[in-house]
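Thread: "does anyone have the structure for this chain?"

Original post by V.I.:
We have the sequence but no experimental structure in hand. Need at least a predicted one for the grant figures.
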Amino acid sequence: MYKLMAIFSLVIRNFVLPNPFEHFPVPVSALFGVDIVIPSILLNMLIEPFLHAITFSVVGLYYKKGVDSPAKGSFLYLFFYCLHVAMLFIMSVFEFSLFAVIFLIIAYIVIQIIDVLYINLLRSM
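Reply from O.Q.:
Generated one for you, tokens below.
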């Protein structure tokens, strides 16, 4: 079951999910005041390791290695990866305005804290 879920997750992440930066060219001021535009594919490649680390950490809140099935971990990784890409896409729609970024991050952290507390409460019963 794990191998099937892992393949499904790989296909969804690589071929179905959009690049959250594709509609947002990012000019970066270089030396001597010349603006350089970073291509969205390159920006996505630069953000990917951080996105993986954050997603992996969040999955660790819900998945216990050796206790839960590996298929559950793979599904949770896909779910939270999709959620994080969606959040990046929403931020890019608002052109990464400070208000949108802070609002989404705070709302996400609050929801995670409430969810983890609720799950721990259910496990203790």
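V.I.: this helps a lot. The chain has a mean pLDDT of 87.
O.Q.: and The helical segments are 2-16, 40-62, 70-93, 98-124.
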